[in-house]
Structure formats: structure tokens, C-alpha cells
Automatic annotation (TrEMBL):
Protein name: Odorant receptor
InterPro entries: 7tm6_olfct_rcpt
Location relative to the cell: Cell membrane
Cross-referenced Pfam families: 7tm_6
Organism placement in taxonomy: Eukaryota, Metazoa, Ecdysozoa, Arthropoda, Hexapoda
Membrane topology qualifier: Multi-pass membrane protein
Amino acid sequence: MWKPITWFGWKSYFYNLYTVVIIILTYGFTLAEGLDLIFVSSSIDDFMNNIFSLLAMVNVCAKIAGVLGKRKDIYKISQNLQTGCTTLFEIAGAGITIGRMCADRPENELPYRTVLPYDYSKPIIYRFTVVMQFLIICISGTILAGFDTLFPGIMLQICAKINILKHRFQVIVTTLEEIRYEKQYDVIKYQQLETNLFKVWIKSHNDILRLSKEIESIFSTVIIIQFSVSAFVLCTTIYLISQVSVFTVEFAGNFLYLIAMVAQIFIFCISAHQVTLEFSDLSQAMYNTNWFVLSTSAKRSIVLMMVRTLRPIVFSSGHLATFSLDSFKSLMKVTYSTYSVLKTS
């Protein structure tokens, strides 16, 4: 996904080939699960066991497409991808795979139900297929971890930029205040300095707003897919957990998967919500300075700047979903309601 910009020639060729192989494996696995769901699944248990992993893989495919389509734009924003939660997704994927392998299943039934173009009833072919499924799940976990730490990492950078902006405003006001308290100062030079300082500050503020809009446009499509499938994935996972004994490998695998899915959507919501809070606090930080000792023209400029900061900055995907803690709470409520319906039906 993230080919180093210094790679050319055979390195670039093999990395592009690697990307194509990963796409074929991931999309092929997702298609095979979908075909099994449509043409093979005949009971509610088969449907529930397949649908939540299928939706998770659809989410992975959407993120692959989103990242590849916007790779240049994303690279301009952040060159380093933080993978702090890779372990969580890898353990969750491995746990649920091992849990399915240890569960009481018919002979030669794969951990993840798929339609394959070959006969895997022979032991060696069956083992090879299981290993391939396990590798695809681990690769998918790495992709999820990479994407799901990229977005909050960028959100944290925006928060840092806003805090720097607050500090710069404080420094500007303090500097102008000290100049005005001097017994003799050049009024014309003071006005020029005042204009230049506020002009630079406004430009920085506009740059941060522009960056926020750019990030929203890059990630909005992928994240709305995340919101769309998360509710159903969570409730089906809870349903599957309720159908097995507590002290089993299958329960542990599903539980780890549930934790990973909840953490995934929570990271998106809390990081975007924090940016919204930082933007909303900007006008208050400006008001808490000694702006009242400045010149009349400076006060007018500050009033206009504060009016600009009063408009809330909320990350959303069109008019379909907003990325905030309220959205996370609403998603949890929808998940519980859907689970209650499944349990009583």
C-alpha cells in the first residue's frame, strides 16, 4: 500500500506486484464468502456465522480502494503511518480463526465459509486453504490497523496545530501589548506590525480549516461504509457470543473480535470529536487574552476572527453521519436494539 517514494526499477515492480496479489486475495476471499452466503447458506446459524465476517471484509475492501485511490493525497498529509493497534487486530483475527477451527464443525469445513473453484476435501489441500484464509485475515488486520491509526493520527496533528494557533495568538497579543506600553513607539510601524501578525495568524487558521476539509473529503466515503456495517457486525458478534459457552476458544475469539470492532469505531469518533472540541475552544482562548488593551483596529480584527471561529467544525460524510461521541453512542444503541430483535426472533 505504502511504496517508498525512493523505490524505482525492480523494487517498484515487485511492490506493485505485491499490491496486486494482496488485492486479488482480499477481494477474492470476500467474493467467495459472498457467494457462499447467497447460494449455500440455508440456516440462520450459517447466515449469522458468515455475514459478520463478510461485512468486515467488505469494510477492508472499501479501505483498500479508498487508500489506493487517495494514496498521493494521504502521503502529502502524513508520510509516516502509525501502527499502534496492529497487535489488537492481529490477535482478534487470529483468535476468531483459531476459535472457529476448534469449534465443533463438520469434517473438512473451512473456518470461513467460502465458495472455491476447487475441491478441498483432500487433507493437504484443506490445510493449504485454511492457511491461506488465516494469512488473508492477518493481512486484513494489518490493513485495518494501518488505516485506523492513520485517521486519528492526522486528527491529533490537527489538534496540535490548533493549540499552536492558540499559543501564537497569545504571543501576538502579548507582543503588541508590550509595544503599546513603551513610552515612545512608532505608530506607523506598530500598525504595520499589527496588520502583518494578524494576517499571518489568519492565514494559518485558514490553512488548518482547509486541511480539515481535505481530510474529510479523503476519508468520508470509507468511514460511512465503516458506520454502515459496524452496527450489524457488532450485533451479530454479540449474538454469536451469546450462543457459545464462556470458557471456550470460540468465545474468546469472538470476544476479542468484538473488542477490536468497538475500539475501531471508537477511535474514529473520539479523534474527530476532539478536533471539534479544539476548534470550539479557539474563540474562548482568544477571548481570555488581554485583547482589550490593543488598538481599536486590532479589536475589530479580533472580533471578526472570533466570529469566524464560532462556526462549529464537525467531521461528517455528507449528511449521512457525523464523527463524534454522540454518533458512537447512537451506534451502540442501534447495535443493542438490533441484537434484541435477533435474540427474540
